Amino acid sequence: MSDEKDKSGGQGNKEGTGQISRRDFLKDAGLVVSTPAIGSMAVTAEAAAQAPKPGASAATPAGSSAAAKCAGPPHSIELTVNGGKYRYAVEPHWSLRQLLRDEIGFTSPKDWCGGLGACGSCTVIMNGRPILSCLTLACECDGAKIETAEGIAKAKHPVIQAYINNNAFQCGYCTPGFVCTAKALLDRNQNPTEADVRDALGGNLCRCATYQRHPPAVLEAARNLKQQA
Amino acid sequence: MKTWKRFEHVDAKTVDEAASILRTGKAAVIAGGTDLLGTMRFEVLPTYPEVVVNLKTIPGLDYIREEAGVLKIGALTRLEDIAKSSLIKTRYTALAEGAHRTATPHIREMGTIGGNICQLNRCWYFRIPDNRFYCIRKGGKMCYAMAGDNRYHSIFGAVKMCLAVNPSDTAPALVALNAGIKTNKRLIEAEKFWEMTVPGSTVLAADEIVTEIQIPSPAAGAKSAFIKFAIRKSIDFPIVNCAAMIGGGNARICLNAVHNRPRRAVEAEAAIKGQAIHEASADAAGAAAVASAKALSGDRNKWKIPIAKAMVKRSILACA
After folding, report:
1. Residues A142 and A47 placed together within one structural domain of the fold
2. Which of B53, B134, B181, B269 is least crowded, fewest Cβ atoms below 10 Å from its Cβ?
3. Is A25 inside any structural domain?
4. Average model confidence (pLDDT) across chain A
């Protein structure tokens, strides 16, 4: 989402234009190790295989204009996403959603309500809790264990097939959020009632209005999970 | 998606450290962040914090325990943990229900009790992005709801010319349960905790931080309940909500979203105290609670008055 990227930094600042380049800035900030694209380094081999674009973008888009007021220093954080470990230098004003999508490349946390916390499309599971990644600061996620819809699908969690079996979506835009919320519910409650499911999914909006399909899908997933166990 | 303007972010290790950063006057504290980050993203206020101080890194503020007849809840306790706590559900029902009816499951998983009681109001003139209505609560000179669309606003008049209502679902429960709110400086009675300030809604000093909620055990035989009316059941802020604790010779009833701060319905308490709870007595108490309510000129918010009456009645009946 280019509109979410920091407009003050990065791309336009070529070396030799008289401005301080990104590389020089990073050197000055003592952050550069040896690679030009610092920050987004997948730490484990497994993560390198999982990450859609490992090491793709520099995590510190701070150019000359980044000396703007209030610019805090980047925070170095380490987090686990879908089982892979990542270490990033993040700016204080980045959302977790921005980090997951634009930097790491897990695109399932969607933006719908524009960051109001009203739609649930950006839901991810952080330390077992379904949370809104658009209203979470990335720099506060140091040490967090995060699961996105990609990880849930890769692990072949029954909730995915149950959603397909029940046609519990039309356009699919809100589905990653629903799937994360449903999985977080099933992690905590192996025997949910329909009321539990409705209650847990209450914060996810679906513009195609497939609401009535969600409870049977999640209940089917719960039954299949128990059979697997 | 609108992104945040830049700010500095500090992980506080102690409450004192956070308070000392707040003393600079250029900082804001963040716990769950669901209210603060929204106001920052949309630049609701004319000022923007230069420093955001993270309270979540302060150890030992996330707990629910009962000690010597007092329920103690750490300020960083998530609303969902309060809503699910079997101790709170059985003995402090109004608070569990209030926490459960707050916002969406996701926001309850993120938002804390300390943040919920300190949240800013939801007046749509106040909340419009980019500070387009420079109203009284932002340091301006007028209330735009006074002449504008005030269908969700106060039915008990303005406070210092502001018509916004307090939107918290846990606040009336805390007042009904006679809670105390502990900060790094003092212990404040719940009833005296809320006040209209610019832009806040509490009596907290600039460097004061809520650390604990304390609720005395309800008297033997007392029951509490919380009832909320909202447009959508699972998401919305209240149109009107009401919490009541009745029994053991006492009655405490508190309405919210009807006034600038949670409003204790003393008239309803007087009407129901010592009476048997049944349809007729609850109805009379409900009528007493809204006897002094008055729609704003234009009658746009008149519909809230019968709702408030019904909320009082139902919360009393739920305590039977």
Report:
1. yes
2. B134
3. yes
4. 79
Q: Among candidates B164, B144, B142, which has minimal Cα distance to B153?
A: B164
Q: Are residues A222 and A190 in the same domain?
A: yes
d(CA B251, CA A60): 58
Per the structure, the count of domains in chain A is 2
Answer whether B134 touches A (CB < 8 Å): no
Whether A181 contacts chain B with CB within 8 A: yes
Band of pLDDT at residue A50, cut at 50, 70 and 90: very low
Residue A166 within a domain: yes
Instruction: Please report the ipTM that was assigned to this predicted complex.
Output: 0.95
Helix axes A175-188, A214-228, angle to 10 degrees: 50
Nearest to A117 among B52, B56, B107 (CB): B107
Give the single-character DSSP code of B223.
Answer: E
Domain assignment present for residue A47? The answer is yes
Whether A99 and A74 share a structural domain: yes
Interface contact B143, partner A, CB < 8 A: no
Q: What is the pLDDT of residues B244-267, one digit of tens each?
A: 999 988 999 999 999 999 999 999
Strand locations in chain B (E): 8-11, 27-30, 51-54, 64-67, 70-74, 180-183, 187-189, 210-216, 223-229, 240-247, 250-256, 263-264
Find the closest chain A residue to B236 by CA distance. A118
Name the residue among A74, A58, A163 with its Cα closest to residue B9: A74
A115-141 pLDDT tens trace:
999 999 999 999 999 999 999 999 999
pLDDT in tens, A133-181: 999 999 999 999 999 999 999 999 999 999 999 999 999 999 999 999 9
By three-state DSSP, how is residue A11 classified?
coil
Q: Would you tell me which residues 82-141 of chain A have a C-beta closer than 8 angstroms to some C-beta of chain B?
A: 91-93, 95, 98, 111, 114-118, 120, 123, 129-132, 134-137, 139-140
Closest by CA to B234, choosing from B88, B107, B92, is: B107
3-state secondary structure of A44: coil
Residues A141 and A162 in one domain: no
Select from A5, A70, A211 the residue whose CB has the most chain B CBs within 10 Å, as the one to mutate to test that interface: A70
* CATH number for position A200: 1.10.150.120
Nearest Cα residue in chain A from B102: A203
The pTM of the full predicted model, rounded to 2 decimals, is: 0.87
| Boundaries of domain holding A107 | 19-115+136-147
Residue A13 above 50 pLDDT?
no
CB contact under 8 A, A137 and B235: no
**Min Cα separation B270/chain A (Å):** 36
Q: Which domains does chain B have, with CATH numbers?
A: 64-117+166-318 (3.30.390.50)
A122 inside domain: no
Q: What type of residue is A76?
A: S
Residues A64 and A110 in one domain: yes
CA distance A119 to chain B (A): 9
Both A142 and A177 in one domain: the answer is no
pLDDT above 60: residue A1: no
- The pLDDT mean for chain B works out to 96
